[in-house]
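Hello Y.,

Per our agreement to keep a running log of every chain we model this quarter, I'm adding this entry. I've kept the format consistent with earlier entries: sequence first, then predicted structure.
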Amino acid sequence: MRFSEQWLRTYVDPPLSTQALAEKLTMAGLEVEELEPAAPPFAGVVVGRIESIAPHPSADRLRVCSVDVGANEPLQIVCGAPNAAAGMFVPCALEGTRLPGDLTISRQTVHGVESRGMLCSARELGLSDDATGLLDLGPANAPGTDLRAALALDDTLFTLKVTPNRADCLSLVGIAREVAAVTGAPLSLPVVSPMSISSDANRALLVEDSIACPRFVARLIDGIDATAPTPAWMKQRLERSGIRAISAVVDITNYVMLELGQPLHAYDDRLLDGAVVVRFAREGETLTLLNGQVQRLDADMLLVCDERKPLGLAGIMGGEHSGIADDTKRVYLEGAFWNPVVIQGKMKRLGFISDAGHRFERGVDFAGCARAVERATQLIIEVCGGRAGPLTDRSGALPSRVPVRVRRERVNRLLGVTITEETIADTFTRLGFAYEKDGDDFIVTPPSYRFDLALEEDFIEEIVRLFGYDRIPATPAAHVQRMLASTESRRAPAAVKSRLVARDWQEVITFTFVSSETELLLAPNAAKNDGPIRVLNPIAAHLDVMRTTLLPGLLETLRTNVSRKATRVRIFECGRVFRHADPGYVQPIRIGGLAYGDAIPEQWGSPARRVDIFDIKADIEALAAPRRVTTAPDSLPWLHPGRSARVLIEGVSCGFLGELHPRLSPHFELAFSPIVFELDLEPLLATSVPMMTPVSKFPPVRRDMAIVVDEAVSAQAILDTLATVKPPYVDQIEPFDLYRGPRLSPGKKSLAILVLMQDTERTLTDADMNAAMRILLTALHDRFGATLRE
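Predicted structure for the entry above:
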């Protein structure tokens, strides 16, 4: 937000220097980003009036001017400006003046003619880049008047870095309110009175969505002169705020926007057909904007239209049928409050930013629409003449102003200093907040122009802003350290990730937004089950859905590493995935990994071999230890049909493990498929509490048995069965050999199993051991038809 200090001081004039005022604003939360003088520091330039012009006797392009500078006699000055004319008031640099660019003016002879000064353009004075001719000052100032006083050049331009929550400070009135509150200086705002109605001209209005457009204020002004010049004082304030002057009506709407913070739009009433309609765009509609851009309209774009065509994008920019021409006689002046939700994100989609949209997407004063239209009407009639028609004011569902309880005890506790009740009351009064007392508490209602006040903490921030951050002592507070309660049966996510890092994995962090194309490639049938969750306003066209698995980010990371000649990649990520649920959505935290290339780094101690599913299963077992990990055959669309499994922790399914499906490797530019896994994080956080077991003083006894079972019986099923029936003194059961060969019947296999027995109370006898082996063999025979191999 850029503005003139002199303009601000017409509303509030604290007894502070420019630097002190800038510091006050910055300390109050309105950072002054830049202070810039309105004009370079020159002196000795006055207003001159060209009394007569004669041709130069020796140069065709030069003329000899007689210039009145308020002295006893006019000065003779040689000038080559093409627009120099008798009766023109122009800047005149007297002898001895030093202009910007280190140019010193002296008495000179130009082609035999004496010249006692210099008539200046705006560029020579450093006021603008215009060097086409002399700066025309107009007859407002007498000859001899100091130019700095005549053009109010001793001014400073403030540039504020206004944060998105303080849209009320995108106006001079809003900044003046802040200065008055911070400094205590009196506030003198422009007086805006309802205009007397001198015309019955009116136009019907239809608002189709009162939530998108909660308030719409408009009126017709008849009989204006659109060619009337913009007053010099208004043009100066606009230009010093970074807005180019265009025409009187447009300049007035821009001026009111800067002054009151309410963007307005003036339409040429001749171009309107029937009633003015506020509605959302229809399918296939297009609009040519004032900047010449032809825009295809989406269904969520709000429009101001007439009964036959769109006129402009509501709150952003008008269309080609909404401009003002030199022969315009009647204008339709509109000032509305658009719901910020309807405006937000639209300019980014369109690829440009407008001053109006910048304000509307942050929220403007919905109570000030009529005041802004009245103010603009007042200025238009003063400058362009005309007659004001009746005011149309259509209100719908305006934002509610919910009172908030502010507790003095909480104010002092959060700020760490004692602030009296009187100081709090004075703060709210200076800020213009309506409040009531309830014991020691204040019930405060935020004003209509403050959209950032909703919580008690918001009002406490207002109190400390005016109290002064610099008045809060920097004393160290006593802090009693307390250890957070922890349990041995649960570990932190960082501990889980550390285990993977210790096993040669590297953590990555990828976007939660992914490509719908990739999601569909991984799971072609996902669309039948609602598919991934779509992003309404994606940060990039290809990041249009939320990830349902961690694989897209891991695979893209692998693709990047492989393209840079990495031959061995082991990466993992811990993050949320997002899925449809009934009702709503779920977003569990998952941990997933990907291994590609050699199982171990290249070395002379072991031959090179590619990582396989069993290497990764071992890492998962270490990750979940001491909890028991098992796998079961499974089929997922993104995994190899014969090399994939479901992972179970303590018998509960929590993820998958397998080789990436061969159809996916070419898409990610991979020579072969990586091994991938993904698990729910929650089961990995649980761990068993350590239990003490005595060390046996008696020797262990080992027995081996080789059983013959059907090929379809899994080793895991056999081990699970043995674990359920084993006597207490059977300490360990592990398979150690597998045989298939000619000694077995077709469809059979032999599994050799180690049985380790040990008791802590006594030495086991042969009878104990034989009984244990009978129990184990009987269970296997009854369930699987297993027999001892001969």
